Amino acid sequence: MLYHLFFLLHTRITVFNVFRYITFRTVLSILSALLISFLITPRAIKTFQKWKVNNGTREDVPGRHETKKGTPTMGGSVILIATIIPTLFWADLTYGYIWFAMATLVIFGAIGFVDDFRKLKGLKNKGVSGKTKILLECAGALVVSLLIYFKGSFLTQLSIPFFKHATPDLGIFYVAVCVLIIVGTSNGVNLTDGLDGLAIGPVITVSATFLLFAYLAGNIKFAEYLQIFYVRGAGELSILCGAMLGAGIGFLWYNAYPAELFMGDTGSLSLGAGLGAIAVMIKQEFLLVIVGGIFVMETLSVIIQVLSFKCRGKRVFRMAPIHHHFELKGWNEEKIVVRFWIISIMLGLVALSTLKLR
Cβ atoms within 10 A of the Cβ of 329, count? Predict the structure, then answer.
């Protein structure tokens, strides 16, 4: 909104010319998200404590998590506010991709909110049933995927890192791939959100990486030079990625060990789905598997554990997701989190290397 106002003034006041540039507005988006996060998070913590919006005791985590009981949750609502407001301020809202991405955040945030709310009111910290949650997620992802698919001139080809000529066109089946990516990433972030700061660290890494890729995909000269798909309007998604980056850093200030606030499903489901939708829109579907490798690892550990127990009656890990396995091996929570962050940063660098290794 502010972008449109300032852009109207650029012909009369020269200084407003800077608002034409996505890079400048992305910086503003990051700083705005940080400021909003720092302003509202302390108030949210006090409000959630007053309303007893607290983390309950779960049965599927190591015993040491008993000390976390009573920590306010649903902090994802703060992240969403700090992401959406700067996006509305600084993005060019005439491009549909911005609205599709924000719709994804809101839809999955609502699903997570309902789940968190039911956990607070229910017994044994249980929320929406797994089947119901997946159905709601698939329905939300299908709506977003159809909006993306029917947007004029949208490419249904897949981009495979390291192979510049491997771009299979899936046609209408691309919608199913979109749904799988959005729902899969959403649940991957949700599974990773088990230790203080563990999920938000990789979210920040992926947001920063996609910020760059969105900018490049939206610039026809850079896209042609780097041999990636050019997507008209994708550059504006840099603004949203910047807002997500700033909001994530602001949230980490309070979520780092020992956490003063948990993101809950409101945050993990929405952030994961948002990143999945962005990956689809900037044509970096497989790149998400690389840069979001932590989410993939956490998800695979659960799948392997379940299949092994059902087929062999034995567990591969002491507990899944895999971060709990390392907890039970005696690793300190801070060590697990920092090491996972380091891996995430390394994966982000590998993702960036794909720009030249084609």
Answer: 11
d(CA 40, CA 67): 25
Per DSSP, 259 falls in state P
Q: Give the residue from 268, 269, 265, 322 showing the smallest Cα distance to 298.
A: 322
* Average pLDDT along the chain: 92
Q: Minimum mean pLDDT among 46-60, 104-118, 262-276: which range? A: 46-60
Which residues, other chains included, contact 114 with Cβ-Cβ below 8 Å and sequence gap of 6+?
127, 128
In the chain, the percentage of residues whose pLDDT exceeds 70 is 94
End-to-end CA distance of the chain: 39
DSSP structure string for 41-110 = HHHHHHHHHHTT-B----SSS-GGGGGGTT-B--THHHHHHHHHHHHHHHS-TTSHHHHHHHHHHHHHHH
The structure's pTM equals: 0.95
Q: What are the CA-CA distances from residue 14 to residues 4, 26, 49, 146 (Å)?
A: 15, 20, 48, 41
Q: Which two tokens stand for residue 149?
A: 């698919």
Residues contacting residue 334 through CB under 8 Å, at least 6 positions apart = 257
Q: Are 344 and 264 in contact (CB under 8 A)?
A: no
Name the token pair of 15: 């200084």
Map residue 139 onto helix, strand or coil.
Answer: helix
